[in-house]
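Q:
Got a chain?
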Amino acid sequence: MNREIYIHERFWAAAEDGALMEYIPRDDSESAGEIVLGKAERLMAGMNSAFVDIGRKRSGFLPLTEGSRSFEGNTIRSGDSVIVQIKKEEFGEKGAYLTRDISLPGRYALLMPMNRHIGISSRVQDPETRERLRKTGEDIAQGEFGLILRAAAAEARAEEVEAEVSALMEEWRKAEALATAVSAPRVLRKRQDAGEQMISDYAARGGVAQVYRGKELTPDLERQLRSAGQRKVRLNHGGNLVIDRCEAMTVIDINTAGDTAGRSPEDIFRETNLEACGEIVRQVRLRNLSGVILIDFINTQTDSDRSLILEALTQGFDRDRVKTVIHGFTSLGLMEMTRKRSRPDWYEQQTECCAACGGTGRVLKDGRNGGKA
């Protein structure tokens, strides 16, 4: 697999074997990953959460109970200043989603200064390697902070991992010191440059063959980018995908097409479904689809066909740097999966509600389609 990263003044992008897999327009307003000193405005006892002023148009939403059992944080009262990290951007009428379980990502490790958990990337499968990395993490942390050792750490020396963790811890101490000297709301640490984060993330997922700085996309990649907003995506052997994004989920339908004479329907369905898996992985990553995703494959009645589809999707999303969980087939025969949301998807970035139909359709921004729905 040949992976290329494009870092440009207008965008960041990733291509794998000539296929455009990720495209992020530069947007200085994006803030996921920022560490902020906020002020608790309103505590919601029934929801065990708080609304926190972080200097944005809308207050952020902060659960008061974190997912990790080893998170160590104090009780919050209304009016308190609190250090939080933005996990998800504002979306629609919802404010940013916040956490007190701060994490600072590096190439080899994820530092969690408010936690004590030592974890290993699920991408590391070998038991001996996992145990070695766990021992390395425990030796570095000494029970003072938490770490997640990434897959790239398996190929690094313990000294390299320790040096990176020390640098990340210094960044955290600077943020803590600034928090004592300023008033809320105030950004304590900016989010990592998205291009450098992309390089770091993919280094642990098969590596990066080439990084192009300041270079435009090739004409073929530009063509692929233009297809990112199309509802219907054609497959190479005649089938197609139909992608519909709804408020609560995204639905993908697979269809056969073309000449099927002389071939059994079962073989056609199986081949189309497996070809669709690869294109689904690409479209989900390229459009940055998130939340609940339901996929209607063709005639998936047998356990063997379902297993092939599940394996193909699992292997495809193994390269994705966004957490994706494939839940399997529902009782109705639909494939159900979820993908973590951290930044706006293609539709939010490139389109806006159509004024003519009251929001049931979308139009390209800046009048690029003449304003027609």
